[in-house]
Amino acid sequence: MTINESDSSHPSSPEINPEDEFANGRTDNSLLTEGLGKKQLAVQSFLKTNIIRGTALLQRNSSLQVAITPRILLFTSLAIAITIISIVINNSFLGIVATLATLILSLLILFPWLQDVIQEWFSPQDRNVFIGLIGIFVAIIGLFRFTNLGNSLLRWGRRINWDASGTLAEWFGALGQIAIAIIAVYVAWRQYVISKDLTIQQNLLTVQQNIITQQQTIDSYFQGVSDLVLDEEGLLEDWPQERAIAEGRTAAIFSSVDGSGKAKILRFLSRSKLLTPLQRDRRLGRAILDGSGGYAEDRLEGVRVIDLGVMLAGADLADNDLRWTDLSEANLIRSNLNNCDLVKANLSRTILYDANLSNADLNGVRLFYGLVEQASPRSRTEPPNYETGEHTGAVIENANFTNAQRMSESTRYYCCAWCGEKTRSTIPGGCEGIPNKLGR
Q1: I want to staple 390 with a disulfide (CB 3.0 to 4.6 A). Which of 5, 288, 354, 385 is the partner?
Q2: Average pLDDT over residues 13-29
Q3: pLDDT per position as a tens digit, 56-79
Q4: What is the pLDDT of residues 164-217, one digit of tens each?
Q5: Percentage of the chain surpassing pLDDT 70?
Q6: 269, 282, 267, 425: which is closest to 341 by C-alpha?
């Protein structure tokens, strides 16, 4: 048995022909198209029937109008001629009849035009108001005509002493002048209100424009600092002069943005490790990697790319998000941090003298290193000890902690111990049993 015979002994599997599939698909599409075509033909026949009926009706109406209009014009011309003849021959009866006929026929001719004018120039609401006013006027005339209201008014008018009415007229004249003055004051007040609203809207537009301009300035600053301190491989390449220029740019932009802009810049610099003291190569001054994908920190001898210094002294940062920001060793004297979110913020060795921290969220905030019992504020002469906590704390004397949120026990202990007697009364939870280590 040959291979061909063995193949032919088994039933051959049906082969799929793409052309047959295309043909079948084309058949299905043709059936669908045929069904849709029948529906479209039915709709088109229905529309054609209605159009033919409407056209026939319009043709009948137009033929009727063509048939009637010459007759009306003829009768109107005849009535006008009879009216003129009646005036010439002075025939009253014939003149009245011709005049009425002329009036009626003229109204019939002008009625379609008047109807179009009324529909074009007056809305249905205006027509309703007009009919209502005519109704009121006619009703008032009917009241005077069919009731004794008119006679009563006449009798009341006869009893009035019209000699004394001159004085009343003067009083009414004075009242009119007062009313005119009141109207003038009202108009002036409305003009003031409108002008005030326009001024408010203009101020809002100005504020929005300032916000857009400020955001563009901040974006340009971000790009400029990134290009300045990063090399082509994205590593920190901040030589001393580059750090000085970055600090100068930061100081300049802090003076030209509001609190929200300052908070955005601080978040950018902090999360970019530009405010953190980094471990440096002693010779090259470049930052050293920590071996886990980041830069190694060195709190004692590290160098910051940007040292804030006194840039934020007295700054208004109220109602802003400062989470996870590194503000260590910054000078925030007399700054306003009211209602700020300071979760996980690093404020070690930060000068917060006379700062406002009321209503701030202090959950996880770092004010010191080491043990709270041994921690103390920074010193001008003594170096910090990050193991014991000596001289690693923030200066919080005379700070305001009224209604501070989520303050931990260690943070509360440090604040009570080193904030001074004036501030101890503002710390949530009180300072009972905690010594005043500041001594004043």
Answers
A1: 385
A2: 40
A3: 444 444 444 444 567 778 888 888
A4: 556 666 777 888 889 899 999 999 998 999 999 999 999 999 989 989 999 999
A5: 82
A6: 267
Total length of the chain? 440
C-beta contacts of 103-108 below 8 A and 24+ residues apart: 105/72, 105/75, 105/76, 105/79, 106/76, 108/72
Q: Rounded to whole angstroms, how far apart are CA atoms 329 and 369? A: 13
Handedness of CA 360, 362, 368, 371 (dihedral sign): positive
Look-up: residue for tokens 């101020």?
A: 203
365-374, long-range: CB < 8 A, 24+ apart: 365/411, 367/393, 367/394, 367/396, 367/411, 367/414, 367/415, 368/392, 368/393, 368/394, 368/414, 369/299, 372/410, 372/413, 372/414
Sign of CA dihedral 175, 176, 179, 184: negative
Q: Determine which helix (DSSP H) or strand (DSSP E) holds 62, and give its type and residue range.
A: helix 18-89
Tokens at residue 81, please? 């001629």
Under the phi-then-psi rule, with left for phi > 0, alpha for psi from -120 to 50, and beta for the rest, what region is 340?
Answer: beta
Task: Give me the residue label for tokens 């079948």.
Answer: 24
User: Which residue's structure tokens are 């209604």?
Assistant: 403
Separation between Cα atoms, residue 222 and residue 239, nearest integer Å: 18
Q: Which residue has the tokens 């001594």?
A: 439
Q: What is the mean pLDDT of residues 118-127?
A: 81
Residues 188-199 pLDDT 10s: 998 999 999 999
The more confident residue out of 367 and 125 is: 367
Sign of CA dihedral 238, 239, 242, 247: positive
pLDDT of the residue at 168: 65
The rounded mean pLDDT for the chain is: 81
Is the predicted pLDDT of residue 22 greater than 90, yes or no?
A: no
Q: Residue 320: which of 273, 275, 361 has the closest Cα?
A: 361
Q: Cβ of 138: how many Cβ atoms within 10 Å? A: 10
Helix axes 18-89, 92-121, angle to 10 degrees: 150
Q: If DSSP codes are grouped into helix, strand and coil, which group holds residue 366?
A: strand
